[in-house]
Amino acid sequence: MDQLGALTGKIDDLNTGMQGLNSGIGSLHTNLSSLDQSLAVSVPKAASGIAQLNGGFTQLGSFNSQLTAGAEQLKENSSVLKNGVSALNSGQKTLSEGAVTLADGMKTFDAEGTSKLKNNG
Question: How far apart are the C-alpha atoms of 57 and 51, rounded to whole Å?
Answer without folding.
Answer: 10
